[in-house]
Amino acid sequence: MCELLESKSGVPHANFKHQTCNLPISVIRPQYCLDAMAALLGEISALLEFRSIPHWITQGTLLGAMRSGSLIPWSNDVDIHVRDEDFDTVAKVLLEMNTHDQIQLADFATGNWNGFISTLHTALPTEKYPTGSKWIAVSSGIIGIHLDIGAMLAHNDGVIISGQCNFELQQRKDGTNGCRTSTEHHVRIDEIFPLIDIELEGMKMWSPAQPDRVLEKMYGKNWATPDQFGEGDWSDENDLHSVHRTTGTAAADTTSTAAQSTNKGSWTKRPRVYVDIVGDMFHFGHVRLFERARQMGRTLIVGVHDDATVASYKRRPVLTMEERIKIVRSCRFVDEVVPHAPLVLTNEYMDKHGIDMVVRGDDQLYETSRKSYGVAMDRNAFSTVPYTEEISTSEIIQRILNRADKLRSKKEINRFTERTSVDGTMVHDKT
Hints:
Elements lengths: L30 H20 L4 E3 L1 H10 L8 E7 H14 L7 H6 L6 E7 L9 E7 L6 E7 L1 E2 L4 E2 L16 H4 L7 H4 L3 E5 L2 E5 L3 H9 L52 E6 L6 H11 L4 E6 L2 H5 L9 H9 L6 E4 L7 H6 L4 E5 L4 H13 L3 E4 L7 H25 E3 L5 E3 L3
């Protein structure tokens, strides 16, 4: 039923169904998670379009499309809205497509199933949603990935949409709230319709007629400024999409340092990230790994395996652990270095070094990663970054050996083609 997209590495994501994308807030999702979200969004959107049901991307999904034409890499869901009058039809269609009447919790938790599963949710009326709210959550079996379909109800004589005003953003110092006192901060019907095309992850999706106006009302004037770690003036720390109000220097760069943060207290929300390496014949692939891992947190801890540990599963390193540590410490992306790193992480090791997130390259099979990083996976504290395929320590060593062979061959040729004259000078024979 559900044919997932191919990852950029060319590996079908069905192989990753037992990996988790349910990662902590602000952590960049592996590519297969983003591909799975795009595939889910594309299939549900195509289904609704086939049924001639108007729908449009919204919230963080719309933000990503407007900013870069791609999904926000630290988000774990995609969002679309439909009209309230179409919601029951959508629910009926999706619930009929459920491929499991009684799915076992263990199967659901491990992704050991195929197809769609949809669940209907309702909430009681609130000030923000005076008539209550309802939505459908759709999953395709990738743990931590889902799509939310919300029902949008027009009110105030059909001019504005219920719930589409940011109460936290419009709260004033005198106790009044702009969402209560005026309709100007609410998303209007004429800002949604007629729907227009917008590109997202190479797909044509439907968007509100005035997406910039909608995003400004939902996230503030700085909606175009990414804020992966919530370092701006946030009204909801779980709503990691954009800066609401900026004081001082905007946190526009997701790799900013603590000194650049507009909210020093929120810096502690960034995880302490850990990578373990051999680091022999240090090259730019190691640097890329450190840089990408460092972007995911406030501190990068690098564990370096000792010589005996490395020799237990492959060739002994050319450089000693002490030499490798000196090189790793010189890298500007590294904050801490831990010698004698274990091959298999334990809860005690993670707690001792305050490790919040473990990162490695995406070149390793899941079963292999599970053996080494199982405790991190169980904590939802494991993520991957793209592996640098252009270079490796083994390739560098092979280059050296190849050049040594060529040099030896050249010397052998010279030995057979050179002779010494009577006066002691070297004479080259013609060959």
